[in-house]
Amino acid sequence: MELTDMLNKSLERYNNYKEMNLNLDMSRGKPGSDQLDISEGFLTSVSEKNDCFSENGFDCRNYGILEGIAEARRLMADVMEVSADNVIIGGNSSLNMMFDTIMRDMFFGNIDSKQPWSKLEKVKFICPVPGYDRHFSICQKLGIEMVNVKMTNDGPDMDEVEELIANDNSIKGMWCVPKYSNPDGISYSNEVVRRLATMKAADDFRIMYDNAYVIHHLSETGDGDKLLNIIDECAKAGNPNRIYMYASTSKVTFPGAGISALATSTENINFIKGYMNVQTIGNDKLNQLRHVRFFKDINGVTEHMKKHAEILRPKFENVISILNKEFDGTGFAKWNEPKGGYFISLFTNNNCAKAAIQMAKECGVTFTAAGATYPYGKDPADSNIRIAPTYPSINELITAIEVLCVCIKIVSIKQMLNK
Amino acid sequence: MELTDMLNKSLERYNNYKEMNLNLDMSRGKPGSDQLDISEGFLTSVSEKNDCFSENGFDCRNYGILEGIAEARRLMADVMEVSADNVIIGGNSSLNMMFDTIMRDMFFGNIDSKQPWSKLEKVKFICPVPGYDRHFSICQKLGIEMVNVKMTNDGPDMDEVEELIANDNSIKGMWCVPKYSNPDGISYSNEVVRRLATMKAADDFRIMYDNAYVIHHLSETGDGDKLLNIIDECAKAGNPNRIYMYASTSKVTFPGAGISALATSTENINFIKGYMNVQTIGNDKLNQLRHVRFFKDINGVTEHMKKHAEILRPKFENVISILNKEFDGTGFAKWNEPKGGYFISLFTNNNCAKAAIQMAKECGVTFTAAGATYPYGKDPADSNIRIAPTYPSINELITAIEVLCVCIKIVSIKQMLNK
Question: Fewest CB atoms less than 10 Å from the CB: which of A62, A97, A262, B392?
Fold first, then answer.
């Protein structure tokens, strides 16, 4: 019988891999060492006193300039395709800016709130799934209930979103990764962006718009998916304060030493500055300058991102090609072929993901935990596996994905044969 | 009449200063440009790939190591005279770590809390006065009521502190700047430290122990006031979790690009890490490495601080010498002569500070606003003036202090003559 043959062959392969005593970690969406090397010049881009002054002569070594220096705001505005006036530069972690935003809205409410969110009986956020576990962790920590909405090829299912919001006024927010989404690699269509901007929602409803991969294309040309400007769309729709957009250079220069940015309406900016003014003495301006000196302008960033793409493209291509080879005609898995971002999202048959990942682990290959891409770590279908191809070498990657495929095959066939 | 003569002479001097069209800002406790220049080598202390690895081989360019790299924790532990295991390294702002601490205790409570502080009917903090306006701003923003306690030459009046806490269980915290306090320049005696550690207080009572000037001596030798180790004292007294101690390199390397640190009990550290893990991807480790490479160890820091002292000593000496010259025998003002820190605290007769600062302002010399050193910006006696001698040049400083003295004389004499 064909399935039994395939199972036996897969078990044989699995045992061979097991004998290799592998120790591979595929769980983290972080840049590889070769990617970090392309930013080495960044380290010395501010190397003497004369480099320390902003374009308007401010000594960036000293205190001051809460919202970030003008040229850094401009650079990150160009990255996010928004106006520099709408940008605040943060520290090295956009996640920290997101956390602060939600904490602020919980504790104080935002400018459109009648009361702090924490005073409400219940606060809910819409979470397109699969999504990013660190977004979900923030909600969980702060006691915000998460409501799953499925992703389509155009972004979140907007019929579902609109219906949920229309019927539940405890929904105060929504997570979005609008370009090359984590983990699906899907970019939102113009219609999805427009519906996010125009849909009816509570005055103080906020979209946490994590534009983490806005310039992280895989193409040779540096071109990629385009997003409609949601801040403009929200303003046009009379919902100017709805969007908090985030980006960072964590996967542009260095994950440990980048700069982050928040873009939002002027009214939100002023409100946030009133809070930041109490919270901090201001973020690291020398690191802002390092970025400006290293890239000069958005063209410098675009050229730099092509170098990242050169390193990442073969990794993504290898994964896709192995998946095609292993699963073609089997129906055991489907997956997206993203044009950018950091992940490939793989869907097994229902109730197979956890077992496959466990098998891979027993073979020395660690993948992102099954369920991690869903709120509360629970994938209702037990089907999604997040593949992070960036960190391992190509050879490691090939082995790891082959192991994964073998494990999925074994688990899937066993499931079918038990039926 | 002698007072009238002095008034007329002072008015004449005031008018002369007014004609000089001065524009001096004495309001900010920040390092001068010459102080920043002594850290220039810091900028290139991490300048190539090989510099980016921690002592245990971790690539600091990438994600990871929430609590900071071991060698940075050791360096800041030596600065604070605590154990490295008790230290978490933050971003560039210790104020931000303080804000996060109180926000966390408000929203979640701390490990010894029965409920979040924000759920209590009232939360109060003891504030030794005069003190640091940014500490007070955090309390005000988060709705914490501040209770003034007077400073003695040994630190806060502990009789007052103990009585307040014994009679009011809504007191959950206290601000302290234990060495070269802002603005008085007073260092806490061993007895004060011991009483802070041993006094009866709520289980979840916390001392925000801002050790901002722990190594900021003015002496030529690099020696200065010594503090008893309060973390040890608290542990001995059975109150191990009482202290959150803070320090930073803002006034060691660069105010805009230093590193901050929090020292506290192991139990607190673990609790805080559980929160940080959701809040951030980790702080800038390359900047931690820059500090370690630049200073090598605590001896490097000590030598470096002597250079700061060399620049600051004549500034402090000039202020003290002018104050002596102008006020000797008048009774119009008294002041401290600190052996370190960033400020000289001047006390006028009651109800004179605001008017004197206003007069100075009209003459082009801006001082820290009267009242700023008290909670809610209200100095009940209208007497305290914070002098920040560090930022201006010596010539500017001399002029500014002379202007201030003249203004204080005019206001004081007018007040006496009107009696």
Answer: B392
